[in-house]
Amino acid sequence: MKVLKFGGTSVGSVENILNVKKIVEAIDEPVIVVVSALGGITDQLLLTSKLASQGDMSYRNELDEITDRHLNLIKGVVPEIDQNIAIQQTTTMLEELENILRGIYLIRDLSQKTSDMIVSYGERLSSYIISRVIKDSKLYDARLFIKTIKQFDKHIVDFELTNSLIEETFKPLPKVALVPGFISSSKVNGDITNLGRGGSDYTASILAATLNASILEIWTDVDGFMTADPRVIRSAYVIDRLSFIEAMELCNFGAKVIYPPTIYPVYHKNIPILIRNTFNPDAPGTFISNEPYAGANKATIRGISSIDNTCLVTVQGLGMVGVIGVNKRIFRALADNGISVFMVSQASSENNTTFAIKNEEADLAVRVLNEEFAMERAQGEINDMVIKKDLATVAIVGEFMKNTPGIAGKLFGTLGRAGISVIACAQGASEINISFVIKKKYLRKALNSIHDSFFLSEYKMLNLFIIGVGTVGGHLLEQIELQQQKLMKQNGVKLNVVGIADINKILIRREGLDLKTCIQDLYSSGIDTSTELIIDEILQMNIFNSVFVDCTASDDIAGLYETLLNNNISVVAANKIAASSVYKKYALLKETARKRGIKFLFETNVGAGLPIINTMNNLINSGDRIIKLEAVLSGTLNFIFNTISEDITLSRAIKMAVDARYAEPDPRIDLSGTDVIRKLVILAREAGCEVEQNDVITNLIIPSTYFEGSIEDFWKHIPELDAAFEENRKKLAANGKRLRFVASMHNGVCRFGPVEIDSRHPFYELEGSNNIIMISTERYRDYPMIIKGYGAGAEVTAAGVFADIISIANIR
Ligand code: ADP
Ligand code: ASP
Ligand code: MG
After folding, report:
1. Residue whose CA lies nearest to ligand 1 atom number 21
2. pLDDT digit string (tens) for 302-320?
3. Looking at the annotation, which residues are catalytic?
4. CB–CB of 157/148 below 8 Å?
5. What pTM did the predictor assign?
6. How far does CA 80 lie from the centroid of its chain?
7. Is 229 a pocket residue for ligand 1 (Cβ < 6 Å)?
8. Sign of the CA dihedral running 166, 171, 198, 71
C-alpha cells in the first residue's frame, strides 16, 4: 500500500486535477490519496474571514471568487452525469461557509475556533471534488480519525487515539481512499482543528506510518528536494537522495517543500519518502530514506535552508560564569511559556547564552526571563536581556560534513568575502548542520554566495555592473561576450553582466544581461537614471561577488567608490579621477579594499592596457624599491611632436591629433598636461610616494595664457607659436635630438615637461602615439625595466579593464 499526497498547486486547476487522476489510476495496488485545498484557497479563506470580522463587505467578493473557482472546476473535471450532484453538495458546503462568514461579519468577532472551522472548508471541498473524479475512490473525513489535543496555543496530534482510529477506519482498505489533508478535530470536544500550515504532508505521513505503507509519495510542483529554495537561488538543483536526518534538518530550517513534522512518523517506521512533481511525473524526484548517501560527486553539504523570522536573545552577566543551573532556568522559563528555541549558542567562558526564537515571541521571552532573573538583575549579576530583531538564520546541512575539515572555514570565508558579518552561530557535535544568524537584509546574498561556493564549484560567478557604455565600455562588453564561453570552460569563471548604465539610463537584471543586445536594450527598456539611482539599484540588488566597472570620466561616478567598497563591491576604474584626487581619498579607497578583502584596480589609468601599475606592484610586493620613473605618458603629445615637421606646423599637428581622435576634443586638456599630471601622480603613489597634483613641477612649453579663454580663442592664437616651434625643432634635429614630454619621479620628486633627447635614449624612437615607461629600482638599477606600446585607444583600454576584472576572478 502506498500513500500519495498532492499539494495545492497539484490540485489547483482542471488540467492539474486530470494529471492527478492519471497518476492515481495508473497504480495497481491500494492507495491512500491525501489532498490539500486548491492552491491559494487556504490563504483566501483566512483573508475572507479577516475581512468579515473587520466589517468589510468585500469579504463577499472573495467568497464569490472561492465559489466560482470550485464550481468551475467541477464543470471541468467531474463527469457530466455526476455534475449536478457534485454542484449540489459543493453548494451546500459553500452555503454553510457563507452563513458562518455572515455571522462573523455581524458580530465582528473571529475566534481561533471559528477560523479553524473556516479554513477546513478548503480541504473538505477539494477532497470531495477529487473523489468525484478518481475512479472507484472512497472519500473519508479526516476529522473522524486525526485527533488533536491542545498544547499552549497549538494543536498537536494525539497519536495513541489517532493510530487506533486510523487502523479501525481503514481495516478494509479500498482501492483508492481519498482523504482531506490538514484538518483534524479535538479529542476533547470534537471541534474542528488543523495540523498547521502545510499540514497535509503531515496527515499523509501519519497515515503512511500507522498503516505501514511501502512508501510515502509527496507530489508537488517542483522536481524534488532542491539544494536551496529555487525561488531564491535560480541555480538550485534537485538532490537525488537524502537521509531522513538531512531532510529533517533542512525542513526544520525553512525548506518549504515538506512540512517539518512530516518526517518523524515515517522515519520511525523506516518508510521512505519520495518527492515528485505532478507536472513532470517522469522526473525521478528525491528519495528520502534511512541511509546517508553521498551521491556520485560526494557532496559534503547537501542543502541550504533558511528562516528569515529570527530574533536573538542574549542572557549575559558575570554572575553566570561557572554557576550551575542558569541554562536550565532560561530554557524552563521559555518552555513554560510555550516559546520554541531553534538555535542556541554559548561561549566557553559561560558569560552569556544566546538563543534564537521567532520575532513575535521576543517580547514575551524578554519579559519571562527578566522575571526569572529578577533577583540576579537587582544584584547586578545578570544584565537586562538584550534582543536583536529582524535577523535571519541560515543552515547548511549534510551527513558527510562529519569529519571533513574545512567546511566551516569555507562557509565563513565565503560570507566574509561577501561582506556579511555573522552575528551568532552554532554547530552540534553531530556535525550535520552548521547554523548561523545574519541581518535579514543579507539573506539572499548569503544564500547565493554559499550556494555558489558549495554547489557550483565548477565555476565561479563574477557579477559585473558596467557604467559607461561609450567606446571603452562598448568594446569591453564585446570582449566579454567573445571570451565568456572560453573563460567558463578553461578558467572556471563565469562573467555575468548584471547591470549597465550610461549618463541617462540604467538597465539591471539579476540573472544577467544578453551581451549581444544589452546596449540597444539599455536605450529601449532602461530606466531614467542618476548617480543616486545607480548606487541605490546596485546596493538593493545585494548581489555577491560583484564588481563595479567605471568606464566613464565622471566625477560623480568616482564619488561612489567609497560606498561601493564599503559594501564589498570591488571597483575597476578606467576613470582616473579617484586615484588622482587628493592623496587621502586615494589612500582611503585602497585601505578600504584591503581591509575588506576586495579589489580597487585602475591599471588603465596609466598607459591604457600596458601592464604598468601591476608590474610596479609586483616589484614592490616582492621586496624591490622604485627609485626612479621616467615616462612618456601622453600619446597625444607624442603624436604632436612626432608629427611636427618642415611641412606640418604645431597648430596643424594639434588639429591632426584632434581629428585622429588621439587628443580630447578640447586639446588643451592634453597640452596643459592635466592628463599626464594625473597619471604621474597615480604612478608616484603606487611607487610609494605621498604626492598631490600640485606637487608636480611642471614646465609647459605652451605658455599658460593660451589655455585661458575659449576654445575658439585657443585655435585663433595657437598659430602664433608655429614659427618658434619649427625653429626649435630644426635646431634640435641638427644636433641629432628630439623633444619629448617626459613625466618623471625621482626620489619622490615629480616633474613634467619637455626634455631634449638624443638618439641613444630609449625615448628617441617612440613612434606615433605610443607610451613608454622606464622603471629604475634597486634590482633594475643600471638597466631600467622598460614597458612600451599603445598608450591610448578604446580597444586596448577595454582590454586592460578586462584584465583587471579577470584578476579579481582569480582571487578565491
Ligand atoms: P505543495 O502545495 O505541493 O505542498 P509547497 O508550496 O508547500 O507545495 O512546497 C513546494 C515549494 O517549496 C516549491 O514550489 C518551492 O518553491 C519551495 N521550496 C522551498 N525550498 C525548497 C527546496 N529546498 N527544495 C524544493 N522546493 C523548495
Ligand atoms: N491547505 C493547507 C495550507 O495551505 C495545508 C496544505 O496545503 O498542506 O497550509
Ligand atoms: Mg506544502
Report:
1. 229
2. 899 999 999 999 999 888 8
3. 679
4. yes
5. 0.74
6. 51
7. yes
8. negative
